[in-house]
Amino acid sequence: MIQSTAQVLKHTFRTSWRSFIYSSLFLMHAFPAVSQLNIANKPVSFTADWITCPGVGAKDYGVYYLRKSFDLATKPHSFVVHVSGDQRYRLLVNGKPACFGPARGDLRNWNYETIDLAPFLKAGKNILAVQLHNMGSGAPAAQISYQTAFILQGNTEKEDLVNTNTSWKIIRNDGYFPEPFPASRLASYIVGSCDSVDFKRYPFGWDKLEFNDQGWKSAIAEAKARYYNEKRRLVPRSIPMMEEKEELIQGIVRTEGLPSAILQKYAADGSITIAANSKATILFDIKNMTTAFPEITFSEGAGAEVKIIYAESLFGTDGLKGNRSQVDGKKIKGYYDVFLPDGGKDRLFRPLWTRTFRYIQFEVTTGNTALVLNKLASIFTAYPFEQKGSFGSNSPLLSDIWTVGWRTARLCANETYMDCPYYEQLQYVGDTRIQALISLYVSGDDRLIRNAIQQFHQSQIPDGLTADAYPAGGSKIIPPFSLFWVSMIHDYYRYRDDQQFVDKYQVPIEAVLKWFEFQINPKTQLLGKLGYWNFVDWSFTKQGIPPGGLEGNSAILSLQYVYTLEQAAEIFSVSNSQKAAHYKALAQKMRKAVFASCYEEKTGLLADSPEKKSFSQHANIWAILTDCVPISSQKSIMEKVMKDGSLIQTSLYYRFYFTRALKKAGLGNLYVNTLQPWQDMLALGLTTFPETSAPNVRSDCHAWSASPCYDFLATVCGIEPATAGFKSIRIAPNLGNLTDVVGVLPHPKGEVKTTYKKLSDGSYTAVIELPANLTGHFIANGKSTPLKSGKQTLKFSK
Predict the structure, then answer these.
(1) Domains and CATH numbers, the chain
(2) I need a surface site. Which of 10, 31, 81, 420 has the fewest CB within 10 A?
């Protein structure tokens, strides 16, 4: 479904408007960053060379090793370098892993990492060793690339002795081959080729100082890395390094070809021996989904083949997943790695990129010698979010939803937010808006959010629209997602006192909104035919496109534009009151037009288009969120939305907006009663929440379904900003039938703590604790009570 650049740019538009957008795109740049070691960083003036391997195709698949030895008179207190690679590198110093990267970006914003190597260095001779790889045509869709190359630049003259140039040695590891996608329903994933490794051709010890690299080639220089270099524009990494933590692979649930005594030995010491001239299969259920680098240590086994299959779930004979915890009668299918042992001892297989799995199966065929699997482990990796927020209640169900939701959110965040870790690993705007709010509420970490906002801006085409997902090669355009990008900036504006960051995007925001303004149908005053892929929700059977999404006059798309205009007006009210007034006036004009064209008196609901042949929850949600329908009727409309099964229903994705409308209509206390889909998913044995609730859903881990982690604090506990920048707070709980609730939100000024308890007379007590210099209001029963810093106790009825 990925379109070519030519398709994306094939869109006619007004010349004057195109010139305006071209000028706006000159704002694309990287913002000041802090490296993983908190070394303050400004863009480096690189004098080192990009280096690569001679005699190989610069854009072809390949795994390369690079080495640079050097002497130090004493162990340094500091030895800072800046490092990057294309596509991916892993830097080791004296045999110890130091960092890997680069963080994903595009050619105009190619990240480099800054690291202090001093802890790894010693007096005397030292060795820098680098694993560099390019997946060629099998690269992930999210991986942009120019050609295979590596660069390392010392921070000062004392570190310049390790700068990349022709003194570095390099070799291609001919033991690596790309493992093609399996021919199955899973072939739709675009996370890149897996690995096939022949250890008989592997240069063992390549990263050690004592390794003899006399037969290696001298690296060749691709180009000097100037800041303005048109091939890759190097910019400092703006996010921390990923978390890495070892986890043992445990939980054998099925074997073939292995005696029970061997399994008992595995339980005792973690090793498994597969006899010579035999076949064995070992299936593990590690109980919870993970994203990790498997690290398999093995010995002997010359002539053997080991295939490792990774899967989110097993499949029954009917091709359905069913209960994810059930194993009997089910088979595994998914992507896989293969390695061929050479017969040596303590070898290590580690794939080039992360794998996602709950189930992992080893299929082993041995030759004339036995194979010993010494240790089966994996290195969990994800963005290093810390869980600083918390939620608890008298409902065990809600606790389980919180745990599984946060796991889902964590696995869908790496160097970017990702829609799903198993299949696409793409940062989609629609998904990311929800993910960003989850991570703000649970971790308080806003670095990945800023990174995402910046990257979507970098994807803007001359007409002003953003790509649907970025970074990515050949991205598509989903116009509603460009509106959600503006909503992301508005969210950041509300939750962070960072006006300078928000102001950088005023012209790009105008570009998006002006594109839509030119699409307004002059007869109906609704959005006309937009072109591109106007995806709203998978609930709509035509590729997620609602009525009017192809031919024009969609109530849903028009009202989402109204919603975004109101948000933009709030952003611009700080610096451009005239622009804010224009957006508010346009929003008012369009909401009236949508009501006049699409509201049906008989049903009391808003139709999806003026033809009034289709009615959805979506259109009526937007009608409430934009005040397209009178405030006095919003409660009754939302009640119909909840009860009328004939309406097109929202998916797990759009439940986020469903809840926003529920609260606005004054029905927030019903939120806890809307969680049946999440209860059903838990009953199916899911340990992360999936893309949809369909019986054979593709992705079992999809972060847009983790929205309860946001709503347990924002809706149930009721903690939200009262003013821009979260400078003051509004707490309006929606407890439903809960009797005891505790919530903690990480605020920039400290923790916001809420505790609610139901009393014997049916009323509630609320203990609210705000950090220093934060004030707000508590809202209950239509009454507003001032809140001050520190702890305070209030009593209210639900």
Answers:
(1) 45-180+190-236 (2.60.120.260), 243-382 (2.60.120.260)
(2) 10
In 3-state terms the chain splits into helix, strand, coil percentages (rounded to 5) of 30, 30, 45
- The partner residues of 274 in beta bridges, in order of sequence, read 371
CA nearest 481: which of 526, 525, 530? 530
For residue 550, give the nearest of 526, 524, 532 by alpha carbon. 532
Q: Compute the average pLDDT of residues 480-489.
A: 98
Tokens in use for 45? 């003036």
**Three-state SS for 17?**
helix
Amino acid 187: pLDDT: 46
How far CA 526 is from CA of 164, 509, 511, 588, 621, in Å, comes to 57, 20, 19, 12, 17
In this prediction, residues 361-383 reach a mean pLDDT of 97
Q: Could you tell me what percent of the chain has a pLDDT over 90?
A: 88
Distance in angstroms (rounded) separating the CA atoms of residues 633 and 647: 18
pLDDT of residue 43: 74
CA separation for the pair 641, 664 (Å, rounded): 14
pLDDT at 747 over 70: yes
Cα 420 from Cα 551, distance rounded (Å): 31
Q: Which phi and psi angles does 171 have, rounded to 5°?
A: -150, 150
Q: What pLDDT score was predicted for residue 195?
A: 96
* Mean of the per-residue pLDDT values of the chain: 92
Q: Cα–Cα distances in Å, from 118 out to 29, 75, 207?
A: 31, 7, 18
Q: Which two tokens stand for residue 638?
A: 């939302």
pLDDT of 260: 83
Q: What region does 277 belong to: left with phi over 0, alpha with psi -120 to 50, or beta?
A: left
102 within 8 A of 132, measured Cβ to Cβ: no
Q: Residue 187 is encoded by which pair of tokens?
A: 């072939």
**Distance between CA atoms of residues 189 and 312, nearest Å:** 13
Q: What is the mean pLDDT of residues 578-593?
A: 98
Work out whether strand 96-101 and strand 62-72 pair parallel, antiparallel, or are unpaired. unpaired
Helix locations, 211-366, DSSP H: 260-269
Q: Which residues of 413-428 are buried (b: 16+ CB within 10 A; e: fewer)?
A: bbbbbbbbbbbbbbbb
pLDDT tens by residue, 623-637: 999 999 999 999 999
H or E, element range at 64: strand 62-72
Distance CA 539, CA 252 (A): 38
> Who contacts 102 (Cβ-Cβ below 8 Å, separation ≥6)?
84, 85, 88, 89, 110, 111, 112, 113, 237
Pairing of β 194-198 and β 336-340: parallel
Q: Would you state the pLDDT for residue 169?
A: 98
Q: Specify the pTM.
A: 0.93
Report the DSSP pairing between strands 234-236 and 110-116: parallel
Q: Estimate the crossing angle of helix 479-495 against helix 429-442, to 10 degrees.
A: 20
Q: What are phi and psi of 160, to 5 degrees?
A: -65, -15
Report residue 223's pLDDT band, with 50, 70 and 90 as the boundaries.
low
Q: How many other β-carbons are positioned within 10 Å of the β-carbon of residue 4?
A: 9
**pLDDT exceeds cutoff 70 at 695:** yes
40-41 and 217-218 as β-strands: parallel, antiparallel, unpaired?
unpaired
Contact by Cβ (8 Å): 533, 499: no
Split at pLDDT 50, 70, 90, the class of 42 is low
Angstrom distance (rounded) from CA 60 to CA 148: 8
The CA dihedral of 66, 71, 77, 80, to the nearest 10 degrees, is -30
User: Looking at residue 32, what is its pLDDT?
Assistant: 30
Q: Both tokens of residue 547? A: 């009525």
Give the number of C-alpha atoms closer than 13 A to the C-alpha of residue 287, restricted to the C-beta side.
Answer: 6
Residue 227 has pLDDT above 70, yes or no: no
Counting beta carbons within 10 angstroms of the beta carbon of residue 259, is it exposed (0 to 12), middle (13 to 18) or buried (19 or more)? exposed
